[in-house]
Amino acid sequence: MPESRTLRLQRALASLVLNGDEAAIEADPGRVAHQQGLTGSDLRSFRDQGPAMMTYRELARMSLIEPLETMFPVLRALLEGAGSWGGCVEAFLDARMVRSPQYRDIAPAFLGWLAATRWGQDRWPFILELAHAEILEVLVARFPDSNPLEGLHADPGPQDLIILDPATQVVSYTHAVHCACSESPVPEARPTHLLAFRDGEGLARLMELTPATAALLVQAQTCPLAEAAAALNVPDLTPVTSLLRDLRSDGAIAGFRSFP
Amino acid sequence: MAQDRFTGVGLGLRRPHLEQVARMEGHGVPFWETCPENVIGDGGRYHRMACTILDRDPVLTHGLAMSVGGFDSWDEEYLRDLGEFLVRTGTPWHSEHLCFTSVDGSCLHELLPLPFTREAVRHTISRARALQARLPVPLLLENITYYAELGAKEMDEADFITAVLEGADVGWLLDVNNVYVNALNFGFDPREWLSRMPLDRVTQLHIAGHKKFGDLTVDTHGADVIDPVIDLMQWTLSRLGRPVPVLLERDNHIPDFDELLAERARIQHAYDAALVPSEVRHA
Ligand SMILES: [Fe+2]
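^ inputs. structure came back:
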């Protein structure tokens, strides 16, 4: 079926909003219409209404960029310091990676684009970790609510598996990205392990973990606690079970289940 | 009738106010408008507060990103969730914008204008009918502000909107601020414009603030409503002669809840005055 004129007009407007080459679009707003095979009065309408068409570019880009500015202030400070923030955002919009109708998904889509394209990673090897750390708490805070898991018990035993709350994340970074701030956006190169979880109030909390605790929290999800502890050379389970009990009452752990 | 619960001036449910509203039952707001995209699939503290309010108070739903005039296929899973959400809230109808918001799967998060052409009318009618068939409540379409015409037009905006509403046989969410802003930007008389429109289809009104940027007026939802827009709302209400619900939109520069309540009360006062039967007014 030949593409309809309506669809070509919509594609032209989307290109006018998202395409990277601002100077070329500014110089000739009809260019995007021409690229869609539009001619005559349709093509002219883009040219004759140039400034008004550019208003759409400005408004739509503003609404797409705002969540990035809000959610990634440290990354923005880092890149602005190098004169690269505008280029980064432009490359992201040009890649058309915002695929979800939910506004809250724009920032995660940006993170996905950074990961997929490795944008800036040669110059800033920590850039992906930094961006991830910046939205970690929001991702945890807004993780979709679900029904409580059933069949779990409250006290951890040596033959138990740890069942994390579905919103909880155990993350490991090669840089201390959670300590970076807008004034000092370059993180120290230091292995960092974080536990991000939702407390009883439904608010996100962040806790720094030792490497051993982080490893235990990951491994004891698939092999019994005593076995995971032994593999990590943790001789005494008493302090471990006491920490796990605390994490359960804080909301990070949903409960414990006997290893089948 | 369930619709009778919806009259007067309601407010959009906004994140900064959730905590206060969830704790407050006697807030005097007759109904809330909520955007399903912001609630479905969300979680955590603010989500729980929003659900408390949505389960407790009368609610109307208003979508932002359905791209009714677009070409992307429907997200059937989302539509199922939306249907469940609409039933849960008890909303008597669901509104979307008469526009497109996504192209080739790419979401623009902006209300973009449809071409004022016969082809776009036909396309939008079939999309609106297909959407209506997937919803458990009647669909309303809202007129948007636009800053440029998309392609060469074959009719004017009024004829375009009328043709879609009539062809799709859906109700109209009439945004009087959008009419006012378009009238400023394109130089027409909003009352004359409204007189040509199928007012019998109006089921709900929107009212909001806007802002001037140079020669252009933009529908920002970020300021108090100005008197000429309130006048236009009153003119419309007396033309309609029925107490359709009005929603005061405020999405930017969101003030404290108390300030927003005062703004609501001001609009409600104008609403009540417009609906006083003329014999009472002149007695
Ligand atoms: Fe509106």
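The mean pLDDT of chain A is 95. Residues 50-71 of chain A form the longest helix (22 residues).
thumbs up if we can close this ticket
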